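Lecture notes, part 5. Sequence design as translation. It can be helpful to think of inverse folding as translation between two languages: the language of shapes and the language of residues. The source text, in structure tokens, appears below.
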């Protein structure tokens, strides 16, 4: 026999459902594009950069990445393409500046895993924009192996952010 629910029981179920749906963990990986041919805006990756892009695909190839974002430059797109192809995830563009454009977009994502590929002068800003505090204060022009993982845990009564600083591919320091 099925008993009808009282209004109090319905309200309690709705409250419980609201609390449960408010909980999520979003993982964001942030990297700089790989090594490039030249300093021009339209440059491609060089052979070392293509190997690094393959190393990124190897490093993150088993992660459940749902979204990949790059600036509209060839070098960022080429850095993400091996992973995007492996996972069959489309690459979406975002403007390099202001970094708040991508951080706001990523913060709106719930319960997913994301890769953001940026530049030496933007990736630390992006990590900070996700409310994490990297130990580095600058990414040098010859520094390409940083991989930042930001975990954003949303709970009914607050959010916690954990940053893990990793590397991938051949060391550049």
């Amino acid at each position: 026999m099925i008993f009808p629910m009282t209004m109090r029981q319905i309200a309690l179920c709705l409250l419980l459902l609201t609390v449960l749906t408010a909980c999520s963990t979003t993982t964001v990986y942030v990297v700089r594009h790989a090594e490039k041919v030249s300093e021009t805006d339209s440059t491609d990756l060089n052979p070392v950069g293509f190997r690094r892009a393959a190393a990124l695909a190897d490093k993150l190839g088993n992660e459940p990445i749902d979204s990949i974002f790059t600036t509209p430059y060839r070098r960022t797109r080429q850095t993400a393409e091996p992973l995007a192809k492996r996972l069959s995830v489309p690459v979406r563009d975002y403007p390099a500046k202001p970094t708040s454009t991508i951080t706001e977009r990523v913060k709106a994502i719930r319960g997913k895993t994301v890769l953001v590929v940026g530049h030496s002068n933007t990736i630390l800003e992006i990590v900070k924009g996700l409310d994490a505090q990297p130990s580095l204060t600058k990414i040098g022009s010859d520094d390409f192996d940083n991989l930042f993982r930001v975990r954003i845990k949303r709970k009914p009564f607050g959010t916690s952010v954990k940053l893990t600083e990793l590397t991938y591919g051949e060391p550049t320091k």
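The translated text above is only one of many valid answers, since several sequences can fold into similar shapes. Residues 67 and 149 are 14 Å apart (CA to CA).
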